Request: fold
Amino acid sequence: MFAKVDGKLNTKALRDFRDHLLEHPYLVPELQDMNALRRRVWIAYLTTMKSEYSALLHEYDASQEKLKVIVGKAEAELTRWEAVIDQFNERFWVPFKVSVQNKADAVLGIEGPQIEFVFKDQDGDPNRRIASEDLSQVLSNGERRALYILNIIFEVQALMQAEQETLLIVDDIADSFDYKNKYAIIEYLRDIKTVEHFRLVVLTHNFDFYRTVKGRLGVYNPNKLIAGRVNNAIRLQSDSMGENPIGAWTTTLDNPKSMVGCIPFVRNLAEYSGDHDTYNRLTDLLHVKANSDAVTFRDLRGIFDRVLSDDMMATCFESDASVLNEIGNMCDAITNASLDEVSLLDKVILSMGIRLATEQFIIDQIQDPEFVGGLSGNQTSKLIRRFRRDHDSPLASKLMEQVLLMTPENIHMNSFMFEPILDMSPMHLHDLYNGIRAIGHGEAASTS
Reply:
């Protein structure tokens, strides 16, 4: 049997082990309890290094007390990570709460903060901890962006503590957010602005966000700029709109362009106040009606006088020129000029001119006064449907589809909803107006 066992010892390590046991047979009984053997071996090692082992124990005991004091202070202290988390939880409206799982280690600098997410159940069930990769699958785009911004906030906080000179460029950071979370972002931007060693550049196409940032952060000229594309290059221009563009137009009514630009706004005011006559008369200048051509600037002044204050009307422009004809002349002048200036007023006037030119073209084509006279609401879309039914003109239909998409939001506006028209390139409005004018003069006949 010994020979059989010995035959199994076919590796050098096993043969060395056999030889060692032959020389030290007292080890054989110890092999019955390997854990006890390990303990005895370690004790033997430590016994031979008793002085070093005693010094280690003494140092450990002394350090343990110090470590307890340090960790205790770390747990009790409102750390910078806690401050960031508390601000995030307080400012953002998201279905989860955030906490730092390893607060003490993060404070001590042993490792970075590990974020823990607690999902809030609205039905009263216990809150659930959830991994970030699982959480991101059930969040909306805005909520995921809020989670992304939390990471940015940690980085900004670290830069703030390091007092490092930093340029921060924030590009449409509030996109996809609801209003409450947009204002949370603005609060963070205001915090960043107060840091001496930070420089902040905010980019946005959202006019409401732009105007709010200007006011909340106290951004004044020449630090307010509007970007426009001119000759295939981006050009930054001074912001000439101010806080309330329509407010600027109503104080310059001696300019006929300002009067035209105010037509949609005054029309809205008349609608909200129940002045149906004024509303209908101004509607005649946004659609082609039987008596639209007859309305002069003198008539328009009288209409405005019913709605606007005496101060606004004191120097109001008046003449016997047809408003509709002058809108066409203004649009021609705007499209013939260079695109060097981004003007909200020009965009509004162009949008009105595009719609009027489209309706006039269709009315001339269908030659049906009874149908046109019976139109009330949604006149432009009804005219376009009639034109498509009676005429096979792909180019004209394509242009009219753009008219339906681009002009309604630009004309039916009030004092704060400018985003659709501001986000629209003036070049597109120029091209659309020129295209409608072209088919009106028969230039598209061969194409169709």
Summary: The radius of gyration is 38 Å. Residues 190 and 217 are 6 Å apart (CA to CA). The longest strand covers residues 166-171.
